[in-house]
């Protein structure tokens, strides 16, 4: 059974940094897309950053230049380095990945990790 487990959230002051990690485990044949979304209270879940196995990176405009997504394919892990955090970055952050397992490809989601940025 495939699952994604996130870690690294917490409370930080504005201007600070956090690093989120997300590890995929289970009977994994391959992973293409891995990314991070976030959802603030009362708002929809939005893309923060994404990475394909081919090296293409995408970022939300609001985090460009502050957040960096990276992957360790040997560990099936994706990271999100968040610098210069702002109160508006406060949200639950979710990891997602398109994983091939048992010859089927589907999108998986982590349980979410809370990031709170105080002003």
Give an account of the 3D structure.
This protein is mostly beta strands and 119 residues long. The chain is 0% helix and 60% strand. It contains no helices and 11 strands. The strands form 2 sheets. Strands 2, 4, 5, 6, 9, 10 and 11 form a 7-stranded mixed beta sheet that branches. The termini are far apart. The relative contact order is 0.33. The mean pLDDT is 96.
Summarize this structure briefly.
This protein has strands at 3-7, 10-13, 18-25, 30-39, 46-51, 57-59, 67-72, 77-82, 91-101, 104-109, 113-118.
Tell me the Rg in angstroms: 14 Å
Order of helices and strands: EEEEEEEEEEE
Give the overall average pLDDT. 96
Q: Overall 3D geometry?
A: elongated
Number of β-strand runs: 11
In what range is the share of β-strand residues?
Answer: over 45%
Largest sheet: 7 strands, mixed
Helix tally equals 0
Could you list the spans in which at least 5 consecutive residues all have pLDDT below 50? Answer: none
**N-end to C-end Cα span:** 41 Å
The multimeric state of the shown protein is single chain
Structural class call reads mainly beta
Give the % helix.
under 10%
Question: Secondary-structure map with pairings?
Answer:
Blueprint lengths: L2 E5 L2 E4 L4 E8 L4 E10 L6 E6 L5 E3 L7 E6 L4 E6 L8 E11 L2 E6 L3 E6 L1
Parallel strand pairs: 2-11
Antiparallel strand pairs: 1-3, 3-8, 4-5, 4-9, 5-6, 7-8, 9-10, 9-11
